[in-house]
Amino acid sequence: MDIISAEQANRLYWLDRYTERVYTTVRIYFKKYDVMIDENEDSYEEFCQMVDIPNIYTSKEDFLKRYPFDPENPDSIISNLTRAYDNAIVLRESISSEALSYIQLAIYEINRAAESLSPLMEMQEVLDDLLAFWGIIDDKIDSEQIRINELHEETLVPLAEEANVDFIWVHGASTVLESTFAYSLNSIKTPVLVVEMGVGMRITRAYGDQLVDGIFRLMHKLGIWKGEAPKVRKPIISRDPDDVCYLNASVGGVFIPEARHWVELKKGDIIGKIVDPLCGRVLDEVTAPIDGILFTIRDYPIVDEGSLMGRLLRKEAYGNE
Predict the structure, then answer these.
(1) SS (HEC) of 146-172
(2) Residue 247 near residue 261, CB atoms below 8 Å
(3) Residue 184: enclosing H or E segment and its boundaries?
(4) 203 with 210: CB under 8 angstroms?
(5) Is the distance from CB of 168 to CB of 148 less than 8 angstroms?
(6) Residue 195 β-bridge partners
(7) 56: phi > 0 → left, psi -120 to 50 → alpha, else beta; which?
(8) In 47-205, which ranges are E strands?
(9) Which tens digits make up the pLDDT trace of 205-247?
């Protein structure tokens, strides 16, 4: 992870707060919408008390229109979403344009909802876009590996062994998304390998060169390349779910890593710290719970309680390699 300034840390903090606020209030709004329509027209007053905002609304109709869609209302959903976007646009280089695009899509959908006769349909898209945003953010981790669905293990592992990667991780079916392009192709007997390398959305030159040797080796194996086949390294292969230890945040804050990717750690070694972005106080010290290799480490600094910070491969899984 690159060094970030105090201003960037502050913006990351508020980006997370505003996206969480929008997601939470939209879900509450959904529940109260039906109550206001079918049961109690004045239940918007209870809503205002619940989310701790001033009741400036004159009627049910005024609330249903102004609370989600009025950009002049500082407590409205669209105002909070706009604040999230204002922070995200400044952080484009840190969070990637792909992550930013989901905030832009959420704003597009809420503007559509404002003009719709059935706004809840478009507002569901806002929730979906925010979930996709968090999914992209949680994927910003250092990781150089090939992941394989266990359903396609027999076909893909022999190919992956020729690809000159360091690590092959065979997942349970439930942990590999069935909606992915690679899964669909493998399901129709078209072998596809997906290689993760570098940091976030970037590619490192050294690992790119390493993979090129693997591509030529693989083409030679498949009869595509008639030239000399480069020598490739023998990868570590993990098939047992118990081989992998997940590191999840115990508290929200800014994660500052201190260990490097693909290093061997002893139990108790420091991996990083979670700090309070406002005062710099250390909230938690993240240590290795086992002996093993740190094969995944988080790149995006903002974490909530439970966020993935890294993964360790148990020493027993590679000790005899």
Answers:
(1) EEEEHHHHHHHHHHHCCCCCCEEEEEC
(2) no
(3) helix 181-187
(4) no
(5) yes
(6) 146
(7) alpha
(8) 141-142, 145-149, 167-171, 195-196
(9) 777 888 899 999 999 999 999 999 899 989 999 998 889 999 9
Q: How far apart are CA 293 and CA 144, in angstroms?
A: 12
Q: What is the residue-wise DSSP string for 230-260?
A: PP-PPPEEE--GGGEEEEE-SS-EEEEE-S-
Please choose, from the candidates 225, 220, 285, 235, the residue with its C-alpha nearest in 3D space to the C-alpha of residue 257. 285
Tokens representing 211 are: 């993979």
Provide the pLDDT confidence category of residue 70 given band limits of 50, 70 and 90: very high
Q: Which are the contacts of 126, defined by CB distance < 8 A and separation ≥ 6?
A: 22, 26, 81, 106, 109, 110, 113
- Computed over its alpha carbons, how large is the radius of gyration of the chain? 24
Given a contact cutoff of 8 angstroms between Cβ atoms, the answer to whether 247 and 269 are in contact is: no
For residue 94 the two structure tokens come to: 């840190």
Cα–Cα nearest to 239, from 172, 295, 174, 291: 172
**pLDDT score for 3:** 52
Tokens for 29, please give them: 């709004």
Q: Which two tokens stand for residue 98?
A: 């792909």
Q: First CA to last CA across the chain, in angstroms?
A: 29
Most distant CA atoms of the chain, gap in Å: 79
Q: How far apart are CA 247 and CA 286, in angstroms?
A: 8
Handedness of CA 294, 296, 302, 307 (dihedral sign): negative
Q: What is the pLDDT of residues 32-64, one digit of tens each?
A: 887 877 777 777 888 888 888 999 999 888 998
Neighbours of 233 (CB within 10 A): 13
Q: What pLDDT is stored for residue 289 in this prediction?
A: 95
On whether the pTM is more than 0.70, the answer is no
Strand, coil or helix: 304: coil
Average pLDDT value for residue range 172-176: 54
